[in-house]
Amino acid sequence: MDWLFDHDNTKELVNLLALEADPTLLKQKSFKVFIEVLWSYYQPRILFKVFIPQLVYSAIFIYLSTYVFGSYFKDI
What we know:
Helix content is 78%, strand content 0%. It is mainly alpha-helical. The chain has a domain at 25-76. It starts with 8 loop residues before the first helix and ends with a helix. The mean pLDDT is 82.
């Protein structure tokens, strides 16, 4: 399965499956195994490059908005 993660092979394969695949193919066990392999490969990347930065951004946004608007609400 090393060929799958070289260059743009994953992207090309997923595009091919999206455009040409028969719906019965998507229900086969081999396809489910393929999805599990992709998920095990990309899950850590999704976690560290999307989810954790979003949490940090949200925490900073909440902190700053509380800091700015907290003093405003005290004055009301």
